Amino acid sequence: MAELNIGYYAHHHGAGHVTRALAIAAAFDGPLTLFGSRLPEQVELPNVQLCPLPPDVAPGVEGEAFACLHYAPLGVAGLRERMGLLVDWFRRAWPCLLVVDVSVEVALLARLCGVPTIYLRQRGSRFDAAHELAYASASRLLAPYPEHLEEPATPAIWRAKTCYAGSLSRYAGQRRDSLREPGTVTVIAGHGGTAFSRARLVAAARACPAWRWTVLGPVAEDATVAPANLSFLGSVANPAPWLTRAELVVGSAGDSLVAELADLRCRFICLPDARPFDEQLSTGRLLAMQGLALTGETWPADDDWPELLARARGLDPERWAAVGDGEGARRAAACIREVAQEVLT
Fold first, then answer.
1. Mean per-residue pLDDT of the chain
2. Which residues have CB under 8 Å from 318's CB, separation 6+?
3. Residue 82 and residue 106: Cα distance in Å, rounded?
4. Nearest to 233 by CA among 249, 244, 218
5. What does the alpha-carbon distance between residue 238 and residue 235 come to, in Å, rounded to a whole number?
6. Strand locations in the chain, DSSP E?
């Protein structure tokens, strides 16, 4: 029997999809080809081959959508090229399986080429026709969270088809509680669009002068003068040192960040960003219900910050153990191997 070839498509919105892919690849016991248009120039994993894809957008072209498709513009050369590269790989690599994180259109392309898929689940109200079609066409669904954090309205048929991996992050097994510095806050601003503006963060730091604030990630510059207890460090390749030293972490509700905070056992103030299908809002609500974070559905008023930080100190970081036990990537890799052997042998 020919070697089973595994492809992995990582969406380009935000940094989390590629980070998650590399965490799974590190636990996978075979070669894996990683596709995407926001890939690093190189990776240190010997089993990973990178296949960069051109962007699927063009100036002046609107992203036309239909009931069963989220993004189907006409006349975009990059879209033709990226789909062609995927089809070329399907032909060369057969027998193969494609993990899709995430794109309804890529998943359907694979299925129409007779290639089985594993589709990554996402948060929020994803009960539209396009998601239903992608989920139905997949051989298995993979959730980067435990079953007890499943969306309450999820149909039984989707639950039965889902492998619940738990948190998937690059920091599995790296918790360092002893390094926490009292009175410190690390703020993580995401790369997928964020409400964490400089003016809001300056106001929060001024309202809590006894706390030292460090902001990581892209925050637009403006003329607002930062107080002495607030530092903007910009984007960093590895935020772990700041996450493990901080007494509290403030961030949005992206899957990648939540997984990292779970593995590092951080006390978390969750301020969800606006996303399609209420993805982050849903995550934030579930985290609050489980006592894993304090979630604010709107940005806190300036004078609410002192009480919010005081309450966050009371969070029990050990509650994250049911979310991130360090085995998520191994479970995901095992699911991929199992499905490949089931459907291709």
1. 94
2. 265
3. 10
4. 218
5. 9
6. 5-10, 32-36, 48-52, 96-101, 117-120, 140-143, 162-164, 181-188, 212-216, 230-234, 246-251, 268-270, 294-295
Paired strand residues for 120:
142
- Token pair, residue 136, equals 């139905």
Contact 234, 251 (CB under 8 A): no
Domain 177-322 sits in CATH at 3.40.50.2000
> What is the tens place of the pLDDT at every residue in 150-161?
999 999 999 999
Tokens of 174: 């790296």
H helices of 167-304, in order, are 198-207, 240-245, 255-264, 279-289
Model pLDDT for residues 106-117, shown as the tens digit of each residue: 999 999 999 999
Backbone region of residue 246 per phi and psi (left: phi > 0; alpha: psi in -120 to 50; beta: other values): beta
Domain ranges of the chain: 5-166+327-344, 177-322
pLDDT of the residue at 195: 83
* Fold (topology level) of 5-166+327-344: Rossmann fold (3.40.50)
Residue 63 predicted with pLDDT over 90: no
Q: Give burial (CB, 10 Å; 0-12/13-18/19+) of 190.
A: buried
Q: Are 202 and 226 in contact (CB under 8 A)?
A: yes
Which pairs with CB-CB distance under 8 Å and at least 24 residues apart come from 208-214?
208/305, 208/306, 208/309, 210/183, 211/183, 211/184, 211/185, 211/309, 212/183, 212/184, 212/185, 213/184, 213/185, 213/187, 214/184, 214/185, 214/186, 214/187, 214/242, 214/246
Same topology, domains 5-166+327-344 and 177-322? Answer is yes
Among residues 168, 164, 167, 190, which one has the least CA distance to residue 270? 190
Q: Are 102 and 120 in contact (CB under 8 A)?
A: yes
C-beta of residue 115 within 8 angstroms of C-beta of residue 90: yes
**C-alpha torsion angle, residues 261, 262, 268, 270 (rounded to 10):** 90
Q: What is the mean pLDDT of residues 94-101?
A: 97
Which of 185, 187, 171 is closest to 324 using CA atoms?
171
Question: Which sign, positive or negative, has the C-alpha torsion 291, 212, 171, 179?
Answer: negative
